[in-house]
Amino acid sequence: MTEGESIYEFLRDHLDEAGRLSDPDLRLPDEKTDTSGLRWAPGAMDGVLGHHAGSADSDQAQAVADAIVKASRRPTKRRLRDLYRAVDTDGVLEYVDAAIELVAQAGADPTRVHDVGRWLATTGSNRSAVKVGIALIGVSGLDRDVDVVRVLGAHEEFTLFAAVALKNGLDDPDSELWALAAAVDGWGRIHCVEQLRDTDDPAIRSWILREGFRNSVMYEYLAHIAATTGDLLSALRAEAPDRELLTAAGEIIEALVQGGPAQDLEDYTEGADAVEAYLSHMATRAETLGDFHAVDAIRSFLDRDGSWDELSQQGWTATRRAAFEDLCAQILDRDVWNDLIAVALLSDDGGEFWRADQAARRRGIDTYDIHLRRVREDPLGHGWFAAWQQADAVRAQALATLARALLPLDQIASGPADELGLGQEWRANSALDWSLQALRDHPGVGAELIVAGLQSPVTRNRNMALQALKEWPAARWPDRARDLVTALADHDPNPQTRELAGEVCGVRPG
Prior knowledge:
single chain; mainly alpha; 3 domains; globular
């Protein structure tokens, strides 16, 4: 009936004894990539759509509902094949809830709907069919198929659907959701913890506060849940919270300050009290660069121009904010940070180095020579960006000379195309980006880099080179630049780049 390997059986064969995937990055049998070689991370498309997107596809929902109802009433080979074709499509989130509601309105027998859902979930070779199957068994009584949901939910492409199925299909789903949340760490972790928002289990609430908010996408998605469900304020009001708690609290507060995709510090009604309690501990116990960044995040929040009149109703009064600012300054201005920064700047751990570098910038420590060393060690890495950020006129000339020596400019300048330039094969082009982006502030510097950028197959390189020339006086342009820009205005494969080139050289493309 379905073609290809069953995704359910494939995943079952790759689970360890604890029910986790032996390879967290395991590719599904139906894996697809676009022509550029890009692929969505597991669960990312549904995660983005679920948090930030749009309206339901009513036509698709009706078509799928009709196919489900027919297959549940009489599951002939033809009807099952028609159903599989109906759900063999991307964008399940756009129609699945509406389709399930239509199935219920049609009076379909729940037991038979469950059987159809189990068939899709366990035999489907296409991820969309499996997702619809999980949803159907979740709304039609899950108890006898919890194991099916566990297996499929272990892969983050399906964790959202598994979490919702557990929530819908079990009388007491929290322990299952917790186990699933602990088995994943990306979008799947986010979806599971969101389903645990209202849990009253003290062990789960403590886990969310101390660990469960951490994920490989953005802590910001779960920080507010960690603070509220985990009762951050009560934990911080303890006389001597342990180091694990203080570290987690700092990460949560920093994520709440950053905000963005979910509720943030302004939405946290106990935020001022929690910050006060946290800073009182940091006054004597701040000892890691993580602590430094959390306190610095609080300082940046206090510096922002916000709706303080409204926030004062939540405790963010002018007097209190001034006290917080003084305490942040006292903590951040301690000399002990310099030693911690110096040690961490020698770390091979990317995260630790980044924290040290950002702390150094906050304290006005020049790290140019360190980034220059990292550039020489890995010319195709990210060291260029930080080095250029600390470049004056003399350093700019030195960096441009170094880039000309270390980057394969002849290979980069292979001719305009419309490439995105993502992935390992384009590392040299990505490395050139940092210099091209910086050169707009240094007219006349790095002529060879500009010329190479104008001839790159990566559209982003050409755009950055054009933007630099747009800021330079015409007298400082490289000798070949005008001819190259004119050619791009006439023939660049990307229409937006053609238009930009026309603006830069003053010739409107026809």
